[in-house]
Amino acid sequence: MRDAEGRACRMIGAMLDLTARKRAEDAMRESERRLGLERGLLEAIFLQAPVGISIAGAEAGVPSSLNAKAEEILGHGLGTEGDARYVSYGAMHPDGRRYEPAEYPTLRALRRGETVRGEEMRYRIPGTGEMRLLEVSSGPVRDAEGAIQAAVTVLADVGDKRRADAETRRLAALVEQSQDFIGLAAPDGSVDFVNEAGRRLIGLPDLAAARAMPIVDYFVPEERARVLDEVLPAVERDGFWEGELHFRHVVTGAAVPVLYNLFPVRGADGRKLGYGTVTRDLTEQHRARQALQASEASLRAVLDTVPVGILFAEAPSGRIVGGNRRLEDIFRHSVLPSPDVESYGEWVAFHEDGRRVAPDEYPLSRIIREGHEHAEMRCEYQRGDGSRLWIEIAGAPMRDEAGAVVGAVVAVADIDARRRAEERQDLLNQELSHRMKNLLAMVQAIAASTLRGATDMDAAREVLGSRLVALGKAHDVLLGGAAESASLAAVVREGVGVQESAGRRVRFEGPDVEIGGKAALSLALTLHELDHERGQVRRSVGAPRRRVGDLLAGGAGGRAPAAHRMDGNRRSAGRAAIAKGVRVAADRARADRAGQRRPRPRLPPGGGDLRRRGVAGRLPGRRMTMRRNEGPAGPLPLAMTDAPNAKTALVVEDEMIFRLEVRDLLEADGYAVVEAGNAAQALERLDDWVVLVVTDVRMPGPMDGLALAREVACRRPDVAVVVVSAQMRPRPGDLPGHVPFVERPFLESRFRDAVRRAEAARTPYP
């Protein structure tokens, strides 16, 4: 306190307790600090929140704002102030209805104080038109008196989440519905999850039982060491392992074959979360494999036992995939692994005309490349040892369930023996046809000779019948042994035995030699003629027997029937020649056995015309020719036939019956006839007087009738040539164009017409 002069005169002291104030100030400062922290935290949350946040003030003085995530989600900022901004928003309800402004969650919170939680909204971004699925929550902000000051709205883009949830649900459904074993394990090997199919595979009742077993206990005991020593290290080293193992069924203890794999499961940061497996049950596959192996073994057994070769190829390449054992037996080499159709050329085969089979001609190629449903061929295959055989190949395509060609199969049959048999059968059929025609021609010749000039038809009928019986017996002798030869004794026995009385009364003896078939037929008919003539003479049971040689040489006479009668000179000359021929045949047989041969009589060089030898001068106005007759065992001595001023024809035929038939026809037409038994004799007797040659085709010797006809046409174009045969028909080019061919048996008119055509075509000397 101060006095009037301002000097301090006393002091008054007062004390105030500021503790509460201090505390209040401290609390205020703490509150402000916390408020600042909260405001900062809210601002950080507002700005950095992973969801969109919108704050809308109730009055114009209360600010409104959007955080960055909200702007990203909505595709725009606040826009205009007030409720007008909501008109421009493109929000729609889940059912597709457009949001009215009053229906937006923010306005519902501001106007009605409504709290909205998780309302689904479809919002179209104005700039891009993209439709987003939003989950919107909104609530009012009230003051101390409870008045609504603002509304806070939280926007979450749940499209990705919904898609992720859907994918998760689908994945879970896939895992549960899968028939494979799917499991997850922790890094320590404890099991976290096994799907239902996996639990069913090894007999686990529930997930708890699956979690109670470590990984190694899922396997059979003998493979657990492999899992620890091989599988797990491989997973750690390579990140994956797969192979066949066996699970153990916990109820039965049976081994379950599986295709097991194991791989690590890692998080987004690369940290290993555990192990996963998707394991396939191989039980049915093993059963199918075993069944397939059994089926293949059965099929292989069948293929190896079938009598044909089987070859398989795949399509479209044509690669050979295999064949059976029989195929290798047929081909005598292993199945060639041709990689494609173009390589089929290494299979060597030939057509009937000798051309090599091209690769695209084989049935496999035609089926695979050209789409044939069936293909076959016959060819001659060259085997591994160089030999050849005929095979038949037939094939068909192999198709899958859709009908597409996936390969082809062919069957290869060895038809070599069958083809040879067919060739032999064809040859036999041709030979049978030739022999039948030859026999018919022979019957025709016998009938023509018998009936020509006959005056008594009853006698002619009897003579013809007996001659045919003799011919039949001669054929019996031939067919009783070798078809091309017969025993001389058997021929004589049957020939004489045609007449029953002669068969009982005639004795014959001599060497039993084999004679040719043609000679046997000629001898049988000759014996029949002689026996028939002698048979007309009366005989008694006690009459002495005669030798065959005596019978043939002559003996008791008798007159032949009118149908068999010929002029005395010709008959006696022919009989003497035949008898001498039989003796020559017997002598030749004996000489063969003794190693000797009697010399054969030969014509003079140049043929049988004796005019060149001066004989013709002794017979003015006549020419004399010599005919070499053929007996049953070979050439007979020359017989002479003279014909006044006659044309000369050369008949070349080794069959006596046919030679006599043609001779009779030509002599009836005014020809003098010279005979030959083969082509060599014919060329010897082809002299200047011969104007006509009639030749058979098949004859003994190296030259047949076709070659003879060509030779005569070349040497003597002035000579007419006619070819006659019952055994074969000439092919084009076998004969000169002007040489006619007559097939036996023939009509006499046809033969005479051929002779006239041949004479008209010849080129006479000037």
UniProtKB/TrEMBL annotation:
Going by the UniProt record, its keywords in alphabetical order are: ATP-binding, Chromophore, Flavoprotein, FMN, Kinase, Nucleotide-binding, Phosphoprotein, Photoreceptor protein, Receptor, Repeat, Sensory transduction, Transferase, Virulence
PTM annotation (4-aspartylphosphate): residues:
696
Task: Tell me the superkingdom of the source.
Answer: Bacteria
Task: Establish whether keyword ATP-binding is in the entry.
Answer: yes
Name one matching Pfam family: HWE_HK
Q: Which residues form the Response regulatory domain?
A: 648-759
What does the record give as EC number?
2.7.13.3
Question: Region entry Disordered: which residue ranges?
Answer: 552-615
Indicate the segments forming the PAC domain, all copies. Answer: 1-30, 117-170, 241-294, 375-427
What is the official name of this protein in its record?
A: Blue-light-activated histidine kinase
- Compositional bias (Basic and acidic residues) spans? 585-595
Domain (PAS): give its ranges: 167-238
> Could you confirm whether the keyword Nucleotide-binding appears in this record?
yes
Write down the chemical reaction(s) this protein catalyses: ATP + protein L-histidine = ADP + protein N-phospho-L-histidine
